[in-house]
Amino acid sequence: MFNAHKKVAILGGQRIPFVRSFREYSRTTNQEMLVASIQALVKKFNLAGKLLGDVSLGAVMKSSIEWNIAREVVLGSELDPRTPAFNVQRACGTSLEAVNLIALKIAAGQIESGIAGGSDTNSDLPVMVQRSLAWKLIDLNNAKSFGERLSTMFSIRPRDLKPAYPGIVEPRTGLSMGQHTERMVKQWKITRQAQDQLAYESHLNAAKAYKEGFYDDLITSFKGASRDTMVREDTSLDKLAKLKPVFDKSENGTLTAGNSTLFSDGAGAVLLASENFAQQHGLAIQAYIADAESAAVDYVHGAGLLMAPTLAVSRLLERNKLTLQDFDFYEIHEAFAGQVLCTFKAWESEEYCKKELNRDKPLGVVDRRKMNVKGGSLALGHPFGATGSRVVATMAKLLAQKGSGRGLISVCTAGGMGVAAILEK
Predict the structure, then answer these.
(1) Catalytic site residue 353?
(2) pTM for this predicted structure
(3) Is 92 part of the annotated catalytic residue set?
(4) What is the dotted CATH code of the domain comprising 177-214+290-424?
(5) Who's near 366: CB < 8 A, 6+ residues apart?
(6) pLDDT-derived band of residue 82, with 50, 70 and 90 as boundaries?
């Protein structure tokens, strides 16, 4: 395959505010939220009527009627309707994977520009009928005679009529992410106090970022929301300490609504391009995508469900001949405070790094003062498919403001996977 080895520039990102589910965005679809985010990019970068190389979008909690959502979003925007688009889904790493795929197309010289993003909503859940009812309805539709139809209709039982709600659990274990993380924090001996401290720092950093106006040009108002609604400027360690565990409700439970992400709705997108495209259109380059990596762990047979980023980051560092300390900023997705702290402990563990990462020595310590400096998912929210676009846009702006440097992005996902990326200025 032809490969032009072009540098991939990040020109900027836009998103709508992340809000708590079942509130501001009730009865709002993924498609509506994504169109709003794409339109914000179109307006900011003067893309109305422009033909882009490709668009990659995705969502996790997606209805079957949204089978071609990326293309429908493009057609609902002011982009040239001839712009192609495709869906992507890698659980919570969806939009970071979308960024990676568009970046690869640009690097190879297949396209000069593209948009990557994602969305998710719990307020418009794809509630389904039971599979048993679906099969019987198919039989009813295919029936050749009145007798067959009647027989099929009488075969429908009350249990068939019970709605099937999508569950945020792992099909192979029957456990939620929170329950898996409770297992992880017990294994790694992460305290409740340490988890609350990280959550507290996330809210403080987010509140400070809003005061500084950092998000003013990254967020566009939508349906009455003008900022992320879950940021708690007035939170405290005392308030966090009073919250009860929500997954393991015994005296041993440590995960609470304060140190775990809340159900969130929102969407975001990032504009990527070649240097030539940026120059031709007079657009400033915020940062470059240097590399990306995905990984998975065998959580079914004992590995920590959300530990895959440890592998993805290790491979990135090895391939790029970098250490874990060679970064000016870290954007580490905070699905749970405990998950982040388990990852840090693993990177600091000689045994883990030798056994799981094939390293001669530990990767070492991450400087927390450089991590999620504008707030993380615990404060800002986590619409599953949208978080990757948020962290990429944030990291690119941080590097642009600094004028130089390198940033590490890490996102854990359902299914025991993780996605990581390196951005440079």
Answers:
(1) no
(2) 0.96
(3) yes
(4) 3.40.47.10
(5) 324, 325, 330, 332, 344, 347
(6) very high
